[in-house]
Design goal:
The complex is a heterodimer of chains A (602) and B (690).
Chain A lengths: L2 H29 L7 H15 L9 H24 L16 H12 L9 H4 L2 H31 L9 H27 L9 E14 L17 E11 L4 H10 L20 H25 L3 H28 L2 H5 L26 H14 L14 H12 L10 H21 L4 E2 L2 E2 L2 H27 L10 H16 L14 H30 L16 H35 L1
Helix pairs in contact in A: 1-9, 2-7, 3-4, 3-6, 3-17, 4-17, 6-7, 6-14, 6-17, 7-8, 7-9, 8-9, 9-10, 9-12, 10-12, 10-13, 10-18, 12-13, 13-16, 13-18, 14-15, 14-18, 15-16, 15-17, 16-18
Chain B lengths: L12 H13 L3 H4 L3 H24 L4 H37 L6 E5 L8 E5 L8 E5 L8 E5 L1 E5 L1 H4 L5 E4 L6 E2 L4 E2 L3 E6 L7 H10 L7 H35 L7 H11 L2 H20 L2 E3 L2 H9 L2 E5 H5 E12 L5 H12 L5 H14 L12 E3 L7 E6 L2 E6 L1 H11 L5 H12 L3 E7 L2 E12 L3 H10 L3 E5 L4 H11 L3 E3 L4 H13 L4 E5 L5 H6 L2 E5 L4 H6 L2 E3 L6 H39 L17 H25 L8 H33 L4
Parallel strand pairs in B: 11-18, 11-20, 18-19, 20-21, 21-22
Antiparallel strand pairs in B: 1-2, 1-3, 3-9, 4-7, 4-9, 5-6, 5-8, 10-22, 12-17, 13-14, 14-15, 15-16, 16-17
Classes of the chains: A mainly alpha (602), B alpha+beta (690).
Chain lengths: 602, 690
């Protein structure tokens, strides 16, 4: 690995820990309802909202009520966002006069944003009006991570409370998450991005006359926007001449801030964080990467504080961190190493400085201002979390380099994962690990003093089962039908595109192997189903676990109890996550990136 | 005692023969449905058989020989799992058969009222109902479980306990229960019938060991759910490969889509068949081990709870100390020679057959070489201990020797007009404070001194408590002694805590308090007044010698009536869970190697570069797949002894046990199949089978 890579990775990790530690302590105070500083300013706002909405913040909910509130709230969000897209043509703040979004795409997008997936089968700048972006998509960018935090809080309360049905109040948790956490942080980040050059404007797209008219081949599309193919199945094109350039603008900085902070990933522009307006400089890139992980990492410290044992949070951090670090290093190696077939042809792929300065490695699909290391780092971070924002095209990574982001998603988005959802997913994995470990030490398993019994096992199995189910069945359905023609590249790589797409949607990541043309009825509908199930079929069983745990006593710790903060347990937990991820996806991966990678070695 | 219940050899030839027959009988679908993991294998076997028939007809997706081989080994997988279960059940049934010999339909003397004077009517024992009264005479088989209301008799309980020495059973007190199937050796009893036919202790025991009424325990259910979930995932993984590989063929322009035969093989290899196939035999074998140890559990749930116990309530007498106190020292009164005290004490104890009395004789011999004397030559007459005087001794010409507890001797001396000197009073206090019992010896009107009777803590018990502590189990000694004495013995035995001056009420409240803290409590008991505590405890082990009430309140009965057995029960409970955990880990770790065998074999035709994944260097794709399937089937057979015997259990802390088991079964499970599959592949090649 180059010195550059080592320095960048260490600087990133250090800055991340330095920020997330105090943030974790702050979040613990916020969610325990203690004074957190900001409550002096925002407290009256909070109370006003409770009064307007008729919420009694003292009234606690059992798991079923909590789950019902969550589902009703999310369903309402989906319906509203769908309607907003369908009627955006007649709604204000649409300076470019964009038409209504097609029904299947609108449904896909509504589900995508309310599930914190932010899978985008559209190009933002040419599909969504400013109003849709700001009052539709951005609202979901705030509330979907807050919903993730709600489920996590209920689970933590289930673990720490004894013999009760109460798991807190969904509305209070939701509001506090948005008001005290996501809003202030995104304000700060948006300003920083504006400082770095991201636009924040309601002005319509700018037009520039280009100096030299350029001839190009324009792809022919049919009425549905699908490429028209010739007899050989190749997309047809027609010659065209370009004389002016449309430069899309909009309230970009504010969208960008919450897109990364809330592990949303839905970019303002189609090119996402590789677009110079979303992510103008290496510094903005660094800030964006920090924003992606700061809340997921911070929540680990919050978790330790709220369960009253800081070691529990740190051990999960160690488990997640070690997986990310190892896979990240593999990704950087793969990308910096470039293509061995090129090396055989005598192409110099070494990074070099001075007169012959070059980035080296695989620079296809990467931005020159970020280079190999920052692209690989961003790709790993955005897929470890369920963010899914991209600053480079994962489709253009080397097979091994592209395998890493794909597998990070397939691990179930528990290596940090989404805001809230990553941690509750990991706790469910910890419950499974504790179950196996408990059997091996001859004792009914306990996690944090709560006995793990058939009900918890059943629910935990569901949580672990559903995402691979959706990803594999979705992929199988796509390759068995005409949906397979959507691939942008032939061979194993095309298969990787479909597998990545369904892994991403089922695990609520939202990033894509960009080659796939996903805006078809099949991908819109099946994708919406996968995203919906991948979110709520996990959230509800998790809440059920929380409810069941809350009703139990807490068994005091002793010599016979298995400690869940030791390196041994961390290793076991990592093994369980990795083994489940590997066993479920190995055969499919063998037909995609592994076959592709091994082909390079021959 | 328990040595008589010799462990059956693991593979007893008649049992094996029966098990082989049973494993075919168990192929019936309703039997297979009970185990979701093995049911999927069963379906896979049927499917591949059908494919084989299709191949014979000439439309096969693969060579008929290959499909036949896969199909055959899938059937073997099912049969091996059946065999494991049948072996475990067979061992249980063998035990049940020997118990059943004790169950006789005999004639019983039904009484019209609860008295030996009542009118007798001869009836069949099967017609006896709860609440009836029967008269049992010498050499009768006891027709039912019951409570003695009248009489004292010696009973041969060897049919149940394996202990041939007869035991005394009498009305009232803690030895009043009789068990159906045992035999009266002498005297007669009037017994109130305590259980209807079919619900007696013997019936329950037979049902349990046969596994007929075996219900899955919560932990077993939880594990089953997890295994079923894994099986489902692998089902989807394999099913998805059908369109995926077809797509890959289309893209690569060569090769063939994976066949259903290969997918069935892959699925069976991935599904947790090892643990799935052995799960029920592990449970049955755990129960069996408990019975080998002489303990009958009323449910598997109780055995599992035993593994989880955090607190053990142990009776001092019999568990921690030897049943009896023993003389340890002579403390002479002022002006008395120690030897004189010893001599007199020995005289007073010569005719005393109690263990305490004998221990005084032994101590006198050890210390001063004072030998036994001829009582009649001394013209001695023995004064036995009575409940009224609470004193015993011997009368010699001119010498009246008495020994007894301080209070009794004080009273005896007061009758003679003297009292205890202050030095002796001090000695009494010293002895009591250090956990001993002072026994005073007086001659005529003066006290000669104190004999220090000591509770003798059982050898090795302190080490066992230390082991328990390392396992995180707290021990609490329960005793009727005063707190001072109790504290001293507790310290000597190394228990964590003690309950002194125990009564049934404070025992019960101690259990409730401990349970409220979220801990699981185990205890042993025998008396009727132990019944509430036994019922409250999570694991209540009743002594077989105890009352019917105690036996019904507890969830286990110890046939040997040995309170130390609780420690073994805990070990067996833990071992049961550990065996399940170890085999689950092993089973899942195995999958890694199987992937490296099957995935390259299945796809190498489509993407030749995937041949690089064949790191074991297996000969051909077909031999690779077949080797993995054969390994998967054979590993069940190889692990049957482990499932019956249980994994090695050592009393260590949780972290240490986890580390060791992860190394053995996790890493071992990872490595073993690589070697195993390669070996089978080499054998297949050598035998030119593929």
């Amino acid at each position: 690995m180059t010195t550059n890579a080592i320095i960048q990775i260490i600087a990133y990790m250090a800055a991340l820990l330095a920020l997330s530690w105090p943030l974790g302590a702050y979040m613990a105070r916020v969610f325990e309802g203690k004074p957190c500083g900001l409550n002096r300013v925002l407290g009256p706002v909070e109370r006003l909202i409770y009064r307007i909405c008729g919420i009694d913040p003292e009234r606690e909910m059992d798991w079923k009520t909590y789950a019902l509130a969550l589902l009703v709230f999310s369903a309402a969000g989906i319906v509203l966002l769908y309607l907003q897209q369908r009627f955006q043509a007649v709604l204000p703040l649409n300076p470019d006069g964009l038409p209504a979004v097609a029904p299947d795409l609108a449904l896909n997008t509504a589900v995508s944003f309310s599930t914190n997936t932010n899978w985008q089968n559209y190009a933002g700048e040419s599909t969504m009006s400013y109003l849709t972006q700001m009052m539709g998509l951005a609202v979901h960018n705030f509330i979907s991570p807050a919903v993730g935090i709600c489920v996590l809080l209920a689970l933590i309360r289930g673990l720490t409370r004894r013999q009760t049905a109460n798991l807190g109040n969904f509305w209070v948790d939701l509001l506090r998450g948005v008001l005290y956490l996501l809003l202030p942080l995104s304000c700060v980040l948006a300003l920083a991005l504006v400082w770095q050059g991201a636009p924040q404007t309601f002005a319509k797209a700018a037009k520039a006359t280009i100096l030299e008219p350029a001839a190009y081949d324009n792809p022919v599309t049919d009425a549905d926007g699908q490429p028209v193919k010739d007899a050989d199945g190749k997309p047809t094109t027609e010659p065209a001449t370009m004389t002016e350039q449309v430069i899309s603008l909009g309230p970009v900085a504010s969208q960008q801030a919450i897109m990364t902070l809330g592990t949303n990933g839905g970019g303002f522009f189609n090119a996402n964080a590789s677009h110079p307006f979303e992510n103008p400089t290496p510094l903005s890139n660094f800030l964006n990467m920090l924003a992606i992980l700061v809340i997921p990492v911070g929540l680990l410290f919050t978790y330790g504080a709220m369960v009253g044992d800081k070691r529990q949070g740190r051990s999960l951090l160690a488990a997640m961190g070690s997986v990310l670090l190892v896979l990240l290093v593999v990704c950087v190696f793969a990308e910096q190493g470039g293509n061995p077939q090129f090396t055989a042809l005598g192409v110099d792929q070494q990074a070099a400085e001075g007169a012959a300065a070059q980035a080296g490695g695989n620079m296809e699909g990467k931005e020159a201002r970020f280079g190999v290391v920052d692209s690989a780092l961003f790709a790993s971070v955005t897929t470890a979390t369920s963010c899914g924002a991209v600053n480079s095209m994962h489709d253009s990574f080397t097979p091994l380099g592209g395998l890493i982001p794909m597998w990070l998603i397939q691990l179930g988005e528990v290596i940090f994962g989404g805001v809230g959802s990553g941690l509750y997913g990991m706790i469910v994995f910890a419950i499974v690990a504790v179950f196996v470990a408990g059997l091996m030490v001859g004792r009914t398993p306990e996690y944090l003093g709560k006995k793990i019994e058939p009900f918890e096992t059943k629910m935990a199995s569901l949580v672990i089962l559903i995402p691979p189910f959706l990803a594999l069945l979705g992929t199988a359905a796509a390759v068995a039908t005409q949906a397979k023609t959507a691939i942008g590249n032939p061979g194993a790589h095309g298969f990787s595109e479909i597998l990545y797409a369904f892994s991403s949607m089922a695990n609520n990541n939202g990033s894509a192997f960009a080659g796939l043309s996903g805006n078809t009825l099949f991908y819109n509908l099946v994708g919406a189903l996968a995203m919906f199930a991948g979110r709520f079929w996990l959230a509800v069983p998790t809440l059920a676990i929380a409810g069941s745990l809350a009703a139990k006593k807490i068994v005091p710790q002793g010599e016979g109890t298995l400690p869940t903060h030791t390196p041994l347990f961390i290793a076991l937990l990592v093994s369980v996550v990795a083994v489940v991820g590997a066993l479920t996806f190995f055969p499919a991966l063998a037909l995609g990136p592994i076959a592709e990678h091994l082909a390079l070695l021959r | 005692m328990s040595t008589k219940r010799k462990a059956r050899p693991l593979f007893d030839p008649p049992l094996v023969k029966q098990a082989v027959i049973d494993s075919f009988a168990k192929l019936a679908p309703q039997n297979q449905l009970r185990n979701p993991v093995m049911f999927t294998v069963y379906v896979g076997s049927i499917l591949t058989t059908a494919l084989f028939v299709q191949a014979l007809a000439g439309h096969g997706e693969a060579p008929a020989g290959f499909i036949a081989a896969i199909s055959l080994w899938l059937w073997f997988t099912v049969l091996f799992a059946n065999f494991a279960e049948a072996m475990a059940e067979g061992r249980g049934k063998a035990q049940a058969a020997s118990l059943r010999q004790a169950r006789h339909d005999t004639q019983a003397r039904l009484l019209d009222r609860p008295s030996s004077e009542g009118k007798i009517e001869m009836v069949s024992s099967t017609t006896l109902r709860k609440g009836h009264f029967v008269l049992i005479e010498a050499l009768d088989f006891i027709p039912c479980d019951g409570e003695i209301v009248e009489g004292v008799a010696s009973v041969d309980e060897s049919a149940i306990t394996g202990e041939s020495a007869p035991v005394i059973r009498e009305a009232g007190g803690d030895r009043s229960a009789v068990t159906g199937g045992t035999r009266l050796l002498s005297d007669w009893l009037v017994v109130r019938v305590a259980a209807d036919p079919g619900e007696t202790f013997l019936d329950r025991m037979i049902a349990l060991v046969e596994g007929a009424k075996r219900r899955k325990t919560p932990n077993e259910i939880a594990l089953n759910i997890l295994l079923a979930a894994l099986t489902l995932i692998f089902l989807v993984v394999c099913a998805a490969l059908l369109p995926m590989s077809a797509f890959a063929v289309e893209q690569a322009g060569k090769g063939e889509a994976v066949t259903i035969t290969v997918l069935a093989a892959l699925f069976v290899c991935l599904a947790p068949t090892t643990i799935g196939g052995l799960l029920s035999s592990i449970g049955i074998a755990g129960m069996d081990r408990l019975i080998q140890a002489g303990v009958i559990a009323t449910s598997g749930r109780a055995v599992e709870a035993a593994g989880d116990v955090d607190v053990l309530l142990l009776d001092k007498t019999g568990t921690i100390t030897l049943g009896n106190r023993q003389a340890d020292a002579f403390l002479p009164a002022p002006g008395v020679d120690e030897k004189e005290l010893a001599d007199t004490a020995q005289l007073a104890s010569l005719a005393d057959e109690t263990p305490e009395g004998r221990s005084i004789v032994v101590l006198a011999k050890e210390r001063f070489d004072i030998r036994g004397r001829d009582m009649s030559a001394l013209e001695a007459s023995f004064v036995p201990f009575t409940a009224q005087t609470r004193i015993s001794g011997v009368n010699l010409p001119q010498r009246v020797i008495r020994k007894g507890a301080p209070d009794a001797i004080r009273k005896f001396l007061a009758e003679q007009g003297t009292q205890l000197p202050a030095e002796v009073e001090q000695d009494i206090r010293t002895v009591a404070e250090s956990g001993g019992t002072p026994l005073l010896v007086a001659q005529n009107n003066r006290v000669l001194g104190v004999v220090w009777l000591k509770d003798i803590v059982k050898g090795g018990i302190k080490e066992r408590f230390a082991e328990l502590r390392a396992m995180g189990i707290k021990t609490v000694m329960v005793t009727g002694d005063n707190p001072l004495t109790a504290a001293a013995i507790a310290a000597e035995a190394g228990v964590d805590d003690f309950l002194a001056e125990a009564t049934p009420e404070n025992k019960l409240s101690l259990i409730r308090k401990t349970q409220a803290e979220g801990r699981l409590v185990a205890m042993t008991g025998d008396g009727t007044n132990d019944a509430p505590a036994l019922a409250q405890a999570d694991v209540g082990v009743a002594m077989n010698s105890g009352t019917q009430a105690a036996k019904e309140a507890g969830n286990m009965v110890d046939l040997d009536s040995n309170p130390t057995k609780l420690l073994e029960v805990v070990a067996i409970g833990k071992q049961l869970l550990m065996t399940r955990g170890a085999l689950t880990t092993f089973s899942i770790s195995n999958d890694v190697a199987k992937y490296f065998a099957i995935v390259p074999a299945a796809f190498v035709g489509i993407y030749p570069q995937l041949g690089l994944l064949n790191i074991m260097g297996l000969a051909t794709p077909q031999s690779a797949i077949l080797s993995a399937v054969i390994f998967n089937a054979l590993v069940i057979v190889f692990l049957i002894p482990l499932s019956l015997r249980g994994v090695r259990y050592r009393p260590l802390g949780a972290a240490r046990v986890l580390r060791d088991n992860l190394l053995i079964y996790g890493l071992g499970g990872l490595a073993v199949p690589f070697a195993g599959i390669k070996l089978i592949d080499m054998l297949l090649v050598a035998a030119k089978l593929s």
